[in-house]
Amino acid sequence: MPASATHPLELRNVSGTCTDGTAINAITTAFSAGRLHLLRGANEGGKNALFRFAGLLEQPVEGEVLIYGNATRNLDDDARTELRAQRFGFAFAAPFLLSSFSVIENVAMPLFKISQVDPEEARRRTEAMLEFVGLSGAVEARVEELAEPAQYRVAIARGLVNEPAALLVENLDGVLTGVDLEEFVEMLRKAATTFGPAIIATASPEIKTQPSDRVLDIHNGSIARDSECLPEICE
């Protein structure tokens, strides 16, 4: 099965144990662009390991992670870090925002650190992203002034502003609940179709899904069920 440049992210026979003790065994799958992919399962079932290996946050013992068909296994630490910064956006279980900075400064930071765009372009892109996540009225606010749901929206804006191939969202329903969670997940679906990244999120088995979502149930380190197996992977 040849590597495909059509998918932003692919895993080929990936196995390994992460530093948190979670593991996966010989997982092969691909994540298409413009789609919300949910890694659903218990915390100990392997979804976190799949998340971390897919995001180049840790190195698997076996197998290959490909970005647009390009292998990453033989990259050194510096090259992996640079590739991760250039190609991925992240929103972790905690927003990890800089409380001493304004909302717009938090979101714009990847543009200066990674893309090195000029200030005018950075402000344009950042303000457009904050409007998308519904925070155009909080551009100059300090992040510590925002309610928790709004802080997670800032994290998503920061993860998307550099136009990543994939956005990885950790523990989707771990903090947000009710209407806040429903609106947040719907925003991710809209972000996938509007901006085009593969959005990959870990979630509990209880997360509500829509027919447009791709759901992978992770159990005992393997994919127990894939709601829409990609044809080239399922052959």
UniProtKB/TrEMBL annotation:
The organism of origin for this protein: Chthoniobacter flavus Ellin428
A single cellular component GO annotation: plasma membrane
GO molecular function ontology, one term from the record: transmembrane transporter activity
Keyword Aminoacyl-tRNA synthetase: no
Alphabetical keyword list: ATP-binding, Lipoprotein, Nucleotide-binding
Sequence ranges assigned to domain ABC transporter in this UniProt record: 9-233
Protein name listed in UniProt: Lipoprotein releasing system, ATP-binding protein
Domain of life (superkingdom): Bacteria
